[in-house]
Amino acid sequence: MTLFSKDAFRDRRALVTAGASGIGAAISRMLVGAGCEVVVSARRGTEAERWAEEIGAIAATLDVTDGVAVRRVVAETGPFDILVNNAGVDQHSFFTQTSPDEWQMLLEVNLISVFSCTQAVLPAMQEKRYGRIINIGSEAGRQGSKGGSVYAAAKGGVNAF
Prior knowledge:
It contains six helices and five strands, in the order βαβαβαβαβαα. The protein has helices at residues 22-33, 45-55, 67-77, 100-128, 140-143, 149-160, and strands spanning 13-16, 37-42, 58-61, 82-85, 132-135. It has a five-stranded parallel β-sheet, with helices on both faces. Helix 3 (67-77) packs parallel to helix 4 and helix 4 (100-128) runs parallel beside helix 6. It starts with 12 loop residues before the first strand and ends with a helix.
């Protein structure tokens, strides 16, 4: 069973962050199957290349924590009709064991990247008067998470955004 018809997204372009594994890979495959031209991004370019080749997409190496790199990749591979802010990293330690560097990294990947990627794609969407932005949040962002307070705080920001 497919969620969308074969041509549901024909003539649309999508950027899927962390699109080469897990939820992002499933979303990328679904969009390609619905006729969308998909740019699969991953921090490790070899992962993006492998998955993009398998599903018939375009690969982009992208560290979503680097705002300059985000704008460069969007300029080189866009414009986009669809953005899926999927990049995320979990926390597996209690707050008292969380270093300031880990706090910063979790916020950058899980929350600040949503801002950077959205800001990079939005002008073209506004100009076209069409765009869809999907932000992958988490129930942890609504209820908190034992052993994952920083992750939950970041995902709470995504849920509110």
